[in-house]
Amino acid sequence: MKYFDYICKEDLEKIFLKVPEDFNANTEKDVLKYALGAFLYVPATQYNMIYKSIIGDVKGVRPLAICLEDAVGANGESEAIENLKLILKNISNENITNKDGIPLIFVRIKDVEQLLRIKDIIIKNNNTITGILIPKANSELIENCIEVLNSIGLQNMYVIPIIETREFIYKENKELSFSSLYNTILRYKSRILSIRIGLTDILGMYGIRRNKNFSIYNNLICSSFILDIITYLQRPEIDIPISGGVSEFFDMTNEEIRNKYIEEILLDKFHGLVGKTVIHPMQIQIVQVLSAVSYEDFTDALEILDSTNSKYGVSKGILGERMNETNPHFLWAKKTLILSKIYGVLNKGVDYEELLKF
């Protein structure tokens, strides 16, 4: 599978200097962890939506989280689990597996007890399921989920923690909670594919919800929370991407909503976040398109990495607008080249709006 495979070869060559490369669940972790892009959450009760996403009827879908947690009502768990079982059974059908490729499939569990209840489904479909999402994660819950997976012989299955509880926002608790989380993530980094930010739950603690006129960075509570996650967990020794938080505003035909969504994604990128959780197909294309690497970033990243053994530690950027400094820009350059493999590199003079036309 690859991004932007809905665009014909001729148009791809006009838009991209370097086209996106193929990837799948077996791609090496250091590349795969950057490939989650627009990560679509679908309630397990919505069988038709999941099926359409898997067989490719939803343009641009790659990672898919089948949700057994908040997106499922109090009385919907049994139906959700049955749907999960049926969907995974149908994926083995030849009519689906002969297509270009199914999305990366993850299961978002409710808690450890539910993980134990569905363990037989996961064991049977471990070649189809890429990983488990852990909502309301902390150090203890991550360890417990990994222990369950290990106990059922799934030592290589990925987990993705979602940080979204009060222990990481209340000042009197957060330092100890983040310190413990840091140590756990560092210890299990080979198993953790991504770190996700649960903004809706954080806002809900204070009786707040998003407003279409503002990005999440205008909210003091969430901007502080994002800052803490970045400063504690976005460290070289951990080296696990952190994603941008979800927005409930999905009507991208509304210019105001669309522009604010683009602004927020650009701010996500500026803060080093990679990809974004999405809850509606209309959000997918914008997240994926804005994940493509610009000609300037790609060319400057190459220059920075090529100059690591040079006697010069600084050089002028390709467009003559900025300076490249080898040491402080080194990690950025490495990440940029990995992103270029997954999402491609735009040609010189091509902007994101060109890619959004398809």
Question: How would you characterize this protein structure?
Answer:
With 358 residues, the chain is of the alpha/beta class. The chain contains 16 helices and eleven strands. The strands form three sheets. It has a seven-stranded parallel sheet with strand order 7-6-5-4-3-2-8, covered by helices on one side. Helix 3 (47-55) links the parallel strand 2 (38-43) and strand 3. Helix 8 (139-151) runs parallel beside helix 9 (171-187) and helix 14 crosses helix 15 (330-343). The radius of gyration is 20 Å and the shape is globular. The mean pLDDT is 92.
Q: Which percent range describes the beta-strand content?
A: 5-15%
Structural class, by secondary structure, is alpha/beta
- Strand order across the largest sheet: 7-6-5-4-3-2-8
Low-confidence stretches: none
Q: What gap, in angstroms, lies between the N and C termini?
A: 18 Å
Global outline = globular
pLDDT average, as an integer?
92
Count of DSSP helices? 16
Report the count of strand segments: 11
Provide the helix percentage: 40-55%
What integer value in Å does the Rg equal?
20 Å
Main beta sheet: strand number and arrangement?
7 strands, parallel
Order of helices and strands: HEHEHEHHEHHEHEHEHHHEHHEEHEH
